[in-house]
Amino acid sequence: MATTSDISRGAFIRLNGELGVVMEYEHVTPNKTRAMYHVKLRNIRTGKIIEHRYRSGETVDIERVETKELQYIYKEGNALVCMDNETYEQTMINDDLVGDTMRFVKEGMNITIGFDANESPVFAEAPTFVELQITYTEPGLKGDTATNTLKPATLETGAEIRVPLFVNNEEMIKVDTRTGEYVERVKK
Fold this sequence. Notes:
Helix content is 0%, strand content 53%. It has strands spanning 2-3, 12-15, 18-28, 36-43, 49-55, 59-60, 62-63, 66-76, 79-84, 90-94, 110-115, 121-125, 129-137, 150-155, 160-164, 172-176, 181-185. The protein has a 5-stranded antiparallel beta sheet with strand order 5-4-3-2-7, with no helix packed on it.
């Protein structure tokens, strides 16, 4: 069993049955009390930040998680079928693991999937930035680039985001999947 001295940034810890990744940790020795570790975790499933204190020397349930880049092939019900590009082995994961960022993922894109010691997927992350084509947006007027006004646009994955007025149909744009915001036009 691991102890608090084994905690490091990026380590996966199981706390109250939930898996979290260590964002920050600090070793603190207050006056006249035992040393402690202040740990800030991000829950893998919900994304919430959890702060927890461990006494120095306390046992910690550190999980070994292996991450792989798998190619998203297609969706089957509530499952995503992904393929390992080296072994061509297919894996089905629950679409809840990807969360809201799934609306920006199209077939053929690589997603990062974390597997625990039992080879079952525990988390999945879409790429931070994706390049997608706009399928429909209202036409912008010439000279509408002076203000920071936005208009709705539908992407090739079906997701709707807000883009600047100068962006037109059939253009490729870069989107931040974490926030769902327009980043820039992609030059060909």
